[in-house]
Design brief:
The chain contains 7 helices and 2 strands, in the order αααααββαα. It has 308 residues and is mainly alpha-helical.
Protein backbone atom coordinates (compact mmCIF):
# COMPACT_ATOMS: atom_id res chain seq x y z
CA UNK A 1 0.00 0.00 0.00
CA UNK A 2 2.85 2.38 0.83
CA UNK A 3 4.57 1.79 -2.52
CA UNK A 4 1.27 2.26 -4.35
CA UNK A 5 0.50 5.55 -2.60
CA UNK A 6 4.01 6.90 -3.15
CA UNK A 7 3.87 5.93 -6.82
CA UNK A 8 0.47 7.59 -7.20
CA UNK A 9 1.78 10.82 -5.68
CA UNK A 10 4.85 10.76 -7.91
CA UNK A 11 2.84 10.06 -11.06
CA UNK A 12 0.42 12.92 -10.41
CA UNK A 13 3.21 15.32 -9.45
CA UNK A 14 5.19 14.58 -12.62
CA UNK A 15 2.08 14.90 -14.75
CA UNK A 16 1.30 18.25 -13.13
CA UNK A 17 4.79 19.63 -13.77
CA UNK A 18 4.65 18.37 -17.35
CA UNK A 19 1.36 20.13 -17.96
CA UNK A 20 2.80 23.33 -16.50
CA UNK A 21 5.69 23.19 -18.95
CA UNK A 22 3.29 22.52 -21.79
CA UNK A 23 1.17 25.43 -20.59
CA UNK A 24 4.12 27.78 -21.02
CA UNK A 25 4.58 26.54 -24.57
CA UNK A 26 0.85 26.87 -25.25
CA UNK A 27 0.82 30.48 -24.07
CA UNK A 28 3.75 31.29 -26.36
CA UNK A 29 1.96 29.52 -29.21
CA UNK A 30 -1.19 31.55 -28.53
CA UNK A 31 0.80 34.77 -28.71
CA UNK A 32 2.35 33.67 -31.99
CA UNK A 33 -1.09 32.84 -33.36
CA UNK A 34 -2.32 36.27 -32.27
CA UNK A 35 0.53 37.95 -34.15
CA UNK A 36 -0.26 35.86 -37.22
CA UNK A 37 -3.92 36.87 -37.09
CA UNK A 38 -3.10 40.55 -36.79
CA UNK A 39 -0.67 40.29 -39.69
CA UNK A 40 -3.10 38.59 -42.09
CA UNK A 41 -5.83 41.03 -41.09
CA UNK A 42 -3.50 43.93 -41.94
CA UNK A 43 -2.64 42.29 -45.27
CA UNK A 44 -6.33 41.80 -46.05
CA UNK A 45 -7.02 45.46 -45.24
CA UNK A 46 -4.20 46.44 -47.61
CA UNK A 47 -5.64 44.25 -50.35
CA UNK A 48 -2.74 41.74 -50.29
CA UNK A 49 -4.44 38.90 -48.45
CA UNK A 50 -7.58 36.78 -48.54
CA UNK A 51 -10.41 36.12 -46.14
CA UNK A 52 -9.39 32.45 -46.08
CA UNK A 53 -6.04 33.39 -44.57
CA UNK A 54 -7.84 35.37 -41.86
CA UNK A 55 -10.21 32.50 -41.09
CA UNK A 56 -7.32 30.06 -40.95
CA UNK A 57 -5.37 32.29 -38.56
CA UNK A 58 -8.46 32.83 -36.40
CA UNK A 59 -9.05 29.08 -36.23
CA UNK A 60 -5.44 28.47 -35.15
CA UNK A 61 -5.75 31.11 -32.44
CA UNK A 62 -8.96 29.62 -31.06
CA UNK A 63 -7.41 26.16 -31.03
CA UNK A 64 -4.49 27.51 -29.00
CA UNK A 65 -6.88 29.13 -26.54
CA UNK A 66 -8.88 25.91 -26.25
CA UNK A 67 -5.69 23.97 -25.48
CA UNK A 68 -4.80 26.42 -22.72
CA UNK A 69 -8.24 26.00 -21.12
CA UNK A 70 -7.87 22.22 -21.24
CA UNK A 71 -4.43 22.40 -19.66
CA UNK A 72 -5.76 24.67 -16.89
CA UNK A 73 -8.55 22.20 -16.21
CA UNK A 74 -6.19 19.23 -15.95
CA UNK A 75 -3.70 21.14 -13.79
CA UNK A 76 -6.44 22.08 -11.34
CA UNK A 77 -7.63 18.49 -11.21
CA UNK A 78 -4.13 17.19 -10.49
CA UNK A 79 -3.55 19.77 -7.75
CA UNK A 80 -6.76 18.72 -6.03
CA UNK A 81 -5.91 15.02 -6.38
CA UNK A 82 -2.43 15.53 -4.93
CA UNK A 83 -3.93 17.38 -1.97
CA UNK A 84 -6.27 14.46 -1.29
CA UNK A 85 -3.41 11.95 -1.59
CA UNK A 86 -1.42 13.73 1.13
CA UNK A 87 -4.47 14.05 3.38
CA UNK A 88 -5.30 17.71 2.71
CA UNK A 89 -8.55 19.23 1.40
CA UNK A 90 -8.77 20.00 -2.33
CA UNK A 91 -7.12 23.28 -3.19
CA UNK A 92 -4.83 23.26 -0.15
CA UNK A 93 -1.69 22.87 -2.30
CA UNK A 94 -2.50 25.62 -4.79
CA UNK A 95 0.10 27.96 -3.30
CA UNK A 96 2.77 25.24 -3.27
CA UNK A 97 2.10 23.76 -6.70
CA UNK A 98 0.60 26.73 -8.51
CA UNK A 99 3.84 28.14 -9.91
CA UNK A 100 5.37 26.30 -12.87
CA UNK A 101 8.40 24.14 -12.12
CA UNK A 102 10.56 21.89 -14.29
CA UNK A 103 9.60 18.27 -14.82
CA UNK A 104 11.81 15.94 -12.72
CA UNK A 105 14.53 14.40 -14.86
CA UNK A 106 15.34 10.69 -14.50
CA UNK A 107 18.95 9.71 -13.76
CA UNK A 108 21.14 8.74 -16.65
CA UNK A 109 21.95 5.27 -15.30
CA UNK A 110 19.73 2.95 -13.29
CA UNK A 111 20.43 -0.14 -11.20
CA UNK A 112 17.32 -2.31 -11.29
CA UNK A 113 18.94 -5.19 -9.37
CA UNK A 114 18.49 -8.92 -9.92
CA UNK A 115 15.13 -10.74 -10.13
CA UNK A 116 15.65 -12.34 -6.69
CA UNK A 117 15.61 -8.89 -5.09
CA UNK A 118 12.29 -8.12 -6.76
CA UNK A 119 10.84 -11.35 -5.31
CA UNK A 120 11.73 -10.15 -1.82
CA UNK A 121 10.46 -6.60 -2.33
CA UNK A 122 7.09 -7.08 -4.00
CA UNK A 123 4.40 -7.74 -1.37
CA UNK A 124 2.06 -9.53 -3.79
CA UNK A 125 4.74 -12.13 -4.53
CA UNK A 126 5.57 -12.57 -0.84
CA UNK A 127 1.88 -12.97 -0.01
CA UNK A 128 1.41 -15.63 -2.69
CA UNK A 129 4.56 -17.42 -1.53
CA UNK A 130 3.43 -17.55 2.12
CA UNK A 131 0.00 -18.76 1.08
CA UNK A 132 1.61 -21.58 -0.90
CA UNK A 133 3.77 -22.52 2.09
CA UNK A 134 0.75 -22.54 4.41
CA UNK A 135 -1.34 -24.72 2.08
CA UNK A 136 1.59 -27.12 1.67
CA UNK A 137 1.92 -27.43 5.45
CA UNK A 138 -1.79 -28.22 5.75
CA UNK A 139 -1.28 -31.30 3.57
CA UNK A 140 0.98 -32.72 6.28
CA UNK A 141 -1.62 -31.93 8.92
CA UNK A 142 -4.29 -33.76 6.93
CA UNK A 143 -2.02 -36.77 6.29
CA UNK A 144 -1.28 -37.03 10.02
CA UNK A 145 -4.91 -38.11 10.54
CA UNK A 146 -4.08 -41.42 8.81
CA UNK A 147 -1.83 -42.52 11.69
CA UNK A 148 -2.67 -43.37 15.31
CA UNK A 149 -2.25 -40.77 18.00
CA UNK A 150 -0.83 -41.77 21.36
CA UNK A 151 -1.33 -39.78 24.55
CA UNK A 152 -0.40 -40.27 28.20
CA UNK A 153 -3.25 -39.30 30.52
CA UNK A 154 -3.05 -38.89 34.31
CA UNK A 155 -4.98 -37.58 37.29
CA UNK A 156 -4.24 -36.61 40.91
CA UNK A 157 -6.86 -36.25 43.67
CA UNK A 158 -7.82 -36.76 47.34
CA UNK A 159 -10.36 -39.14 48.89
CA UNK A 160 -11.44 -39.62 52.53
CA UNK A 161 -14.39 -40.71 54.64
CA UNK A 162 -14.04 -37.67 56.92
CA UNK A 163 -13.43 -33.96 56.54
CA UNK A 164 -9.77 -34.32 57.50
CA UNK A 165 -7.67 -34.40 54.30
CA UNK A 166 -4.23 -33.94 55.83
CA UNK A 167 -3.26 -37.60 55.74
CA UNK A 168 -0.98 -38.45 52.85
CA UNK A 169 -2.63 -41.86 52.51
CA UNK A 170 -5.76 -40.12 51.33
CA UNK A 171 -4.10 -38.96 48.09
CA UNK A 172 -4.95 -40.79 44.84
CA UNK A 173 -3.52 -40.69 41.36
CA UNK A 174 -3.89 -42.51 38.09
CA UNK A 175 -1.86 -42.71 34.90
CA UNK A 176 -2.23 -44.59 31.66
CA UNK A 177 -1.80 -44.45 27.88
CA UNK A 178 -4.52 -43.47 25.40
CA UNK A 179 -4.81 -44.41 21.74
CA UNK A 180 -6.84 -42.61 19.05
CA UNK A 181 -7.00 -43.90 15.50
CA UNK A 182 -9.57 -43.16 12.81
CA UNK A 183 -9.77 -46.55 11.16
CA UNK A 184 -13.37 -46.45 10.02
CA UNK A 185 -14.19 -42.94 8.84
CA UNK A 186 -15.51 -43.91 5.42
CA UNK A 187 -12.44 -42.52 3.60
CA UNK A 188 -13.16 -38.99 4.74
CA UNK A 189 -9.55 -38.45 5.81
CA UNK A 190 -8.19 -39.38 2.39
CA UNK A 191 -10.79 -37.15 0.77
CA UNK A 192 -9.66 -34.22 2.93
CA UNK A 193 -6.06 -34.94 1.89
CA UNK A 194 -7.05 -34.92 -1.79
CA UNK A 195 -8.95 -31.65 -1.31
CA UNK A 196 -6.01 -30.04 0.47
CA UNK A 197 -3.65 -31.13 -2.30
CA UNK A 198 -5.96 -29.51 -4.83
CA UNK A 199 -5.98 -26.31 -2.75
CA UNK A 200 -2.18 -26.43 -2.60
CA UNK A 201 -1.99 -26.88 -6.37
CA UNK A 202 -4.28 -23.86 -6.84
CA UNK A 203 -1.98 -21.84 -4.56
CA UNK A 204 1.00 -22.95 -6.66
CA UNK A 205 -0.72 -21.82 -9.88
CA UNK A 206 -1.60 -18.48 -8.26
CA UNK A 207 2.02 -18.01 -7.14
CA UNK A 208 3.38 -18.74 -10.61
CA UNK A 209 0.83 -16.40 -12.21
CA UNK A 210 1.70 -13.62 -9.75
CA UNK A 211 5.38 -14.06 -10.47
CA UNK A 212 4.87 -13.98 -14.24
CA UNK A 213 2.70 -10.87 -14.03
CA UNK A 214 5.37 -9.14 -11.94
CA UNK A 215 8.10 -10.04 -14.42
CA UNK A 216 5.89 -8.84 -17.27
CA UNK A 217 5.29 -5.50 -15.55
CA UNK A 218 9.02 -5.00 -15.02
CA UNK A 219 9.89 -5.88 -18.61
CA UNK A 220 7.15 -3.64 -19.99
CA UNK A 221 8.32 -0.75 -17.79
CA UNK A 222 11.94 -1.24 -18.87
CA UNK A 223 11.01 -1.29 -22.56
CA UNK A 224 8.77 1.76 -22.19
CA UNK A 225 11.44 3.69 -20.30
CA UNK A 226 14.19 2.82 -22.79
CA UNK A 227 12.15 3.59 -25.89
CA UNK A 228 10.73 6.81 -24.42
CA UNK A 229 14.25 8.01 -23.66
CA UNK A 230 15.18 7.51 -27.32
CA UNK A 231 11.96 9.19 -28.43
CA UNK A 232 12.57 12.15 -26.13
CA UNK A 233 16.08 12.60 -27.52
CA UNK A 234 14.73 12.51 -31.08
CA UNK A 235 12.08 15.12 -30.26
CA UNK A 236 14.69 17.35 -28.66
CA UNK A 237 16.77 17.16 -31.84
CA UNK A 238 13.68 17.90 -33.91
CA UNK A 239 12.88 20.95 -31.79
CA UNK A 240 16.43 22.20 -32.15
CA UNK A 241 16.30 21.69 -35.92
CA UNK A 242 13.04 23.65 -36.22
CA UNK A 243 14.48 26.40 -34.04
CA UNK A 244 17.46 26.71 -36.39
CA UNK A 245 15.09 26.83 -39.36
CA UNK A 246 13.19 29.60 -37.57
CA UNK A 247 16.42 31.55 -37.22
CA UNK A 248 17.37 31.04 -40.86
CA UNK A 249 13.88 32.16 -41.94
CA UNK A 250 14.62 35.65 -40.72
CA UNK A 251 15.34 36.79 -44.26
CA UNK A 252 11.90 35.59 -45.42
CA UNK A 253 8.57 37.25 -44.90
CA UNK A 254 7.36 37.91 -41.38
CA UNK A 255 4.41 35.57 -41.92
CA UNK A 256 6.76 32.71 -42.76
CA UNK A 257 8.79 33.47 -39.65
CA UNK A 258 5.66 33.30 -37.50
CA UNK A 259 4.65 30.02 -39.11
CA UNK A 260 8.12 28.57 -38.49
CA UNK A 261 7.93 29.74 -34.89
CA UNK A 262 4.56 28.06 -34.46
CA UNK A 263 6.02 24.83 -35.82
CA UNK A 264 8.94 25.13 -33.41
CA UNK A 265 6.59 25.63 -30.46
CA UNK A 266 4.64 22.55 -31.50
CA UNK A 267 7.88 20.55 -31.55
CA UNK A 268 8.80 21.90 -28.11
CA UNK A 269 5.38 20.89 -26.79
CA UNK A 270 5.93 17.31 -27.99
CA UNK A 271 9.40 17.31 -26.44
CA UNK A 272 8.05 18.51 -23.04
CA UNK A 273 5.33 15.87 -23.19
CA UNK A 274 7.89 13.17 -23.94
CA UNK A 275 10.07 14.27 -21.02
CA UNK A 276 7.09 13.91 -18.73
CA UNK A 277 6.30 10.47 -20.12
CA UNK A 278 9.90 9.43 -19.53
CA UNK A 279 9.66 10.38 -15.85
CA UNK A 280 6.28 8.63 -15.58
CA UNK A 281 7.73 5.43 -17.02
CA UNK A 282 10.50 5.60 -14.44
CA UNK A 283 7.96 5.76 -11.61
CA UNK A 284 6.06 2.82 -13.11
CA UNK A 285 9.31 0.88 -13.26
CA UNK A 286 9.97 1.74 -9.62
CA UNK A 287 6.49 0.51 -8.70
CA UNK A 288 6.92 -2.71 -10.70
CA UNK A 289 10.20 -3.43 -8.95
CA UNK A 290 8.69 -2.79 -5.55
CA UNK A 291 11.25 -0.08 -4.74
CA UNK A 292 14.55 -0.65 -3.02
CA UNK A 293 16.89 0.38 -5.83
CA UNK A 294 18.99 3.49 -6.33
CA UNK A 295 20.64 5.27 -9.29
CA UNK A 296 24.07 4.09 -10.31
CA UNK A 297 26.73 6.54 -9.02
CA UNK A 298 28.96 8.01 -11.71
CA UNK A 299 32.25 6.20 -12.23
CA UNK A 300 35.23 8.54 -11.76
CA UNK A 301 37.42 8.91 -14.80
CA UNK A 302 40.72 7.05 -14.67
CA UNK A 303 43.67 9.41 -15.31
CA UNK A 304 45.77 8.58 -18.30
CA UNK A 305 49.50 7.77 -17.87
CA UNK A 306 50.42 11.10 -19.49
CA UNK A 307 48.45 13.11 -16.91
CA UNK A 308 49.29 10.91 -13.94
Amino acid sequence: MLVSVLAEVALNYIELRTLQQRHLVAVANRDAQQCTLELVQAKLAAGAGTALDVDRAQSGLEQSRAQIHLLNQNMGRLQNHLAVLVGAPPGALADVLGAAAPTPEPPVHLAVGVPAEMLRRRPDIRRAERRLAAETARIGVAEAELYPKFALNGSIGLEALSLSLSDTDQRTFGIGPALQWKLFDGGRTRQRIAIQKAVQEEAMIHYEATLLRALEAVEDALIAFTEERLRSAALERAAATVAMACYEAGASSFLEVLEARRTALSAHDQARSSQGELALHLVRLYKALGGGWTPVPPVPATPSPETA
